[in-house]
Amino acid sequence: xxxxxxxxxxxxxxxxxxxxxxxxxxxxxxxxxxxxxxxxxxxxxxxxxxxxxxxxxxxxxxxxxxxxxxxxxxxxxxxxxxxxxxxxxxxxxxxxxxxxxxxxxxxxxxxxxxxxxxxxxxxxxxxxxxxxxxxxxxxxxxxxxxxxxxxxxxxxxxxxxxxxxxxxxxxxxxxxxxxxxxxxxxxxxxxxxxxxxxxxxxxxxxxxxxxxxxxxxxxxxxxxxxxxxxxxxxxxxxxxxxxxxxxxxxxxxxxxxxxxxxxxxxxxxxxxxxxxxxxxxxxxxxxxxxxxxxxxxxxxxxxxxxxxxxxxxxxxxxxxxxxxxxxxxxxxxxxxxxxxxxxxxxxxxxxxxxxxxxxxxxxxxxxxxxxxxxxxxxxxxxxxxxxxxxxxxxxxxxxxxxxxxxxxxxxxxxxxxxxxxxxxxxxxxxxxxxxxxxxxxxxxxxxxxxxxxxxxxxxxxxxxxxxxxxxxxxxxxxxxxxxxxxxxxxxxxxxxxxxxxxxxxxxxxxxxxxxxxxxxxxxxxxxxxxxxxxxxxxxxxxxxxxxxxxxxxxxxxxxxxxxxxxxxxxxxxxxxxxxxxxxxxxxxxxxxxxxxxxxxxxxxxxxxxxxxxxxxxxxxxxxxxxxxxxxxxxxxxxxxxxxxxxxxxxxxxxxxxxxxxxxxxx
Length: 666
Ligand SMILES: NC(=O)c1ccc[n+]([C@@H]2O[C@H](COP(=O)([O-])OP(=O)(O)OC[C@H]3O[C@@H](n4cnc5c(N)ncnc54)[C@H](O)[C@@H]3O)[C@@H](O)[C@H]2O)c1
What we know:
By secondary structure, the protein is α/β, with parallel strands linked by helices. It has helices at residues 3-9, 37-48, 56-70, 97-110, 134-146, 187-196, 215-232, 255-263, 274-282, 293-305, 318-327, 356-365, 367-391, 402-408, 426-434, 452-472, 478-490, 509-524, 562-573, 605-628, 632-644, 658-662; strands at residues 122-124, 128-129, 151-156, 159-165, 173-177, 243-247, 266-271, 288-290, 310-315, 334-335, 394-395, 441-447, 502-507, 531-535, 543-544, 578-583, 593-601. It has 22 helices and 17 strands. The mean pLDDT is 96.
């Protein structure tokens, strides 16, 4: 059977043979046992819904074995025989180019080169799922191969509910992930709903098919490090010879060493998982791997002396490094952490003093003991960070819920007022005021032809547009423009592509619209093939996350989620090809609501109309909210946006003099 025929058949009517998988593939840890006997039966009944009753006796046994072995039912037998990767869009079957571009993005998210646990359909972040099982994947691909441009595929947390009549300007796919009634949004609720097969954690770009490998975050991390470097520079000096200590070489965190190299420092990145460390080293995302802590000390000392630009992976626990660098007095200039603390009890954070294998066993077989060990390590971790910051280290929370979980573990991380953390999040200090408030965020695109020449041409188009815009941009955004022009010019040389031919840069509304318009014109002229636009959810408007994206909102509204919901609704009727809205992502289930979109540009007038309407809203929604929260940069940016677009009319805040409030509640 050809690839196209396999896609079109959906769930095969005869059972495929049971698969055995390469042991080198990185597997998800066993999930904790959460279901009662009755709930286990319900999980089996739920999973059998996808199959002809004649197969139920065989599959019921098989799925119950999976539930026992993995804590989840992945339906491994139904993993396709073909390789999953971003094929050129022309190779996908179907009547709708938009739907075929979505298939490309789905396969990219599940590709073995890109996904963290490909067999468990997890793209990144330990539990960031594209689907919960292989039946959902097969059925979704079949629907996409059948649909026309006047239908919409509706997806409930990985499950394709079906195709519904709509119209050509409607999204082809509407994705919701992990949406639950707010009172049922605790970590164990997620474990249970996920084990039952009725909900999933979409992370941010995993469940919305918009993940493009670590490149997406390399850029954001580079911008963060450059600006953190500017913050700690005493005389405007660069990051040369300065040490950045952090942890995690996973889906997102793996970008840190590369970003460190681009920003020009010495990066030390600890990772406990040997397989992941090897992958990142083989892929060239990290220069060297060291397994012995004393050797690490010697190496870092020599790198400091020679002011080398180098990224060093340490295979081991990051707490060991903070401890050793403390006792050896190795000065850490910049410190952070990107272990997966949004998922602390199921493999996101490994305790000190026990092996990786022991930890994996303990989290499944003795979750309470494991939790205790994690919390003990977190307390020590924070206390060592405190020792370093007392010596002058600039430490920032990297949006992985480190400070949140450390505080819950009773670590000494609270500020004197007992409300705030003693360290800022990178959004509070850097991303928020410097980027998001001005509308700068992670705009991205994928060349659906799969051709690297197309990517090169789009890089050049984007660089030209930014250079042109920079000539007339106000001082407030000149630094952002300059950083992004430098980034896009160096992007090719930095070999950032893993999987699809994708690129990211930070641009504001005007930049995004102008670049997209230029791409659409180039497609119309036949210079390049179709392009999929998108963005990380980690952006100006898409995400309400009080400890990350919206942590620099100080009007008391940071625990509301109106902005993210408004955003996805607004994107959906302004022409997005697909939209998604998720509970959880980044900082954890119940802690954030985030949404995203994908938009296919095919060179048509329809694409031109849609891109202008949707991108304008997709950025200015968040600037409006940030402006209403009295953020200075956003008040500037929204006034500028209104001057450019007369149809935009936004409510502006009146500022209150402190002296008016001073006497009121004495
Ligand atoms: N700041 C941002 O822009 C941003 C963006 C994306 C993700 N994040 C957050 O960063 C975190 C990491 O994301 P990811 O996709 O890389 O997750 P991941 O699970 O793929 O990677 C985390 C890695 O940390 C390792 N690790 C865990 N405990 C460790 C320890 N004590 N010492 C050394 N290594 C340890 C794990 O083995 C894992 O490989 C998540 O919480 C995510 O939400 C932040």
